[in-house]
Amino acid sequence: MADKYYVSSSPHISSGVSTKTVMWSVVLALIPALLGSIYFFGMRALWLTLLGVAGAVVSEAVVELLSKKPLTIGDGSAVITGILLAFNIPPGVPWWMPVVGASFGIIFGKMVFGGLGNNPLNPALVGRAFLMASWPVEMTTKWIAPRGGSIPAIATKIDAITGATPLGVLKNFVGKTLADPNASPEKIAQAKQVLHSMYANWTNLFFGNVGGVIGETSAVLLIVGFVYLLVRKFVDWRIPLSFIGTAAILGWIFGSPEGMFKMNVLFYIFSGGLMLGALFMATDMVTSPITVKGRWIFGIGCGILTAVIRRWGGYPEGVSYSILLMNLAVPIINRHSMPKKFGYKK
Amino acid sequence: MIKEFTKGIIKENPVLVLALGLCPALATSTTAYNGIGMGIAASFVLVMSNIIVSAIKKTVPSRIRIPIFITVIATFVTIVKLVMAAYTPGLSKQLGIFIPLIVVNCIILGRAEAFASKNGILKSALDGLGMGLGFAIVLFVVGSIREILGSGTITLGFPMLFGPVNVSIFGSGYNPALLMILPPGGFLTLGLFMWLKQLVMKENG
Known about the structure:
- The complex is a heterodimer of chains A (346) and B (205).
- With 346 residues, chain A is an all-alpha fold.
- Chain A has helices spanning 19-41, 43-66, 77-87, 96-109, 123-134, 136-141, 153-156, 166-179, 185-200, 202-207, 219-231, 238-254, 265-270, 274-281, 292-312, 319-336.
- The model of chain A is unreliable at 157-163 (pLDDT under 50).
- With 205 residues, chain B is mainly alpha-helical.
- Chain B has one domain (2-203).
- In chain B, 64% of the residues lie in helices and 4% in strands.
- In chain B, strands 1-2 form a two-stranded antiparallel sheet.
- The interface between A and B is small, with 9 and 8 residues.
């Protein structure tokens, strides 16, 4: 009898959209970027991604079996974590790194807090931060030159360069040379030449033949996936817009080692992990604010932190840490951006 | 009487249950050798200060008891610091500021205030020994786990006599997880250890 008289609160009309639908749509939206990565870096990119997914799914299943909770691996969220974690590591790392990173992200980033919906931090980024702190050499040097590489050959020949990513060259070669008071005029001219040829070739960043982590190479394929989610209304446009917009403005003003207002904005927003982070990781439903105002604040905060870390931080790229830091601020943002209740005075 | 000794090891373990002395527990458990060194140093101070505090408990005016306890503790910490600097200079250098900081270790002041100032000398000595042993065991286990994962080695031998002997666990193919010997590794290991202890306690009632 009890199940015949089902009592629930409104709304009573179901759209048919479940967690499962949303999650598997996100997986689908990440496929173009994965295909692009396979094209540019070879089958390695696919194997590493599959290992990341396997690590995430298996560790979620093991935790749930051990704690005698219902299995939730079918909802697709662990698959997303695995893919995003693999998207965040360089394509030349040893095979066990995506497995370890994804397991750590799932166990310590998600399951210890009680599973999907309770995690304060994006599990894939927790995994990346763990890998970054544990194996910094692998995480910052195992780049693979993409098919039709775009970093000017002149820059990669110089010993000082450890990472053949545009932002690595910007920070470790161009930035250091221009800041060095003893640099010879020829070397400064060379650094500026490298910098300007990177600016001129920003379309490489847009289409993807550029060194970097597995998922960040091709901006256009990430945008294709994001537009699909946008059309299905599974994702909010405010966070990416405010994130990328803030980073672009601050990058244009402060981003260039040559001086203020010298940065090529298109180079700035399509390089590094900004597209991947802003479109797919900052927009994670669990770890982003629920209010409209809060989403603007969240995106702007991510943008400011990213620009600050890129220009003045120790790492060439700061997208992942800026998202993690803003994830921590989400409860406060939510509390202080609640809309006024209808009929109440302030 | 024997209960005063055993309670500090599991049931009222200072780190895992009372959550005291977490700062030195996190900072000095980067290797098994450091962990056990810190554990022994703190245990010595704990037992000795418990004995003295218990002996003088009737003559100490209650208003100024804390400064007096601290003075007693500081005396023994000075002894430990000088002895360690003389006989185990390597360990002394590794532990650094954390040896003088035993003075303000809340386990020691906590036991002086909560136990030794209210109980007899023998009971207080056993309490100090048990608590010290509980602290040392946690530091040793956490230190071993962090060292094995974070450096790929384990320190063997009887450290006070022979000095540390490093043995590689996984061979040269192992790429250690640097994070485990950094502060987050300490928090993670200690947190998991507390969880495990709660789990075991729950199942045993």
